[in-house]
Amino acid sequence: MLAAALAPAPARALPRPEELLDAALAAPSVPYQGHVMVTQWYGHSADGRVRSRTEEMRVYVRPPDQVRREFLTLDGTVARVLISDGDRESVRLVKSGRTIVGDAAGTGDKVLAPELERATLLSNYDLSVSTAEAVAGRATWRLSFAPKAAGKARQTLWIDRETKIVLRLKRWQPGRPFASEAYFVSISPRKEQPEELFRVEDSTGVGSAVHARALAPRFLTLDQLRARSGSTFPDKLPGGFIFESADVFSVRKSPVRHARYTDGLTVLSVFQTDRPVRLPKNAAIPAGREALPGPLRASTAGKVMQWRVGPRHYVMMSDVSRDLMAEIAKSLR
Asked: CA nearest 306: which of 273, 330, 282, 277?
């Protein structure tokens, strides 16, 4: 009996990767608030340094879909506030006093069924689970995604063992200056959040509200996109990407056709226009093994490439490698 009492406790069995994936994708089950740091690394500057940008924010969550994010300046004051009550969403710019209001993300009917998106992810990535260090003082499981195809980022989630809240996310391409990371510095799970925190207001003063067409995009099928614009896009792209949805809108009275693709984890956007689009003024990224059909630059939204096919101009945005972007661009000619 004494030997049994002194024996070490058995190690806790690791959860299955699919089980943790489903928990991470599900709506939060408990309210919480916390302090988050977000950093992006996006290519080299002209002097060879890696560009980066860091943001700090306070996050408040009330299940199932109410969220408030307060983005802070370097001195800790609030620069902008994003609020979603599940149906509507607002972005308040504190300095100017303006508020942008629209539909909340996810309110439209998505074209791609969640089951198909999940199956696409599992077909494109190898998932693994391991024990991990604590984040914000809480025990976590580490869920890692390794791409099966070359040219894609790796991703790791640190998931709270008790609440299943994602406490840290890291996404990177080995050996490349493109990465992102977000993590909780502190978090208070199960802390009740007052309803007034998530109240979406049309304005903070007379005449200060701007009603956006939608903060959440429309979700058109390929047939609907073709009927509205006459444009055709493929249902699949190299690298395991499948069509997710499309949208049509105007910029300065010029039509823009936007097709979104996903491999279940990575998002890739293709824009088609009748006029050339001005790219970021960052230094151009040189070609790799594959010849590029047009200029390629880095931005905080990922790599941006522009090229032309006949009368149509194309812009592609994603964080996949330059060689994979070149391969995808060839398939769109």
From this structure: 277
CATH number corresponding to 222-331: 3.30.200.100
Q: State mean pLDDT over 31-46.
A: 92
Interatomic CA distance for residues 330 and 333, integer angstroms: 6
What does the domain layout of the chain look like in residue ranges? Answer: 13-211, 222-331
Specify the CATH number of the domain 13-211.
2.50.20.10
β-bridge mates for residue 259, sequence order: 246, 270
Q: In this structure, what is the dihedral angle of CA atoms 122, 125, 128, 133, given to the nearest 10 degrees?
A: -120
pLDDT of residue 63: 95
Taking residues 62-76, report their average pLDDT: 95
Question: Across the chain, where does the E strand assignment appear?
Answer: 32-44, 50-62, 66-72, 78-84, 88-93, 98-103, 125-131, 140-147, 154-160, 166-172, 178-189, 209-211, 236-237, 241-251, 254-262, 267-273, 296-299, 302-309, 312-318
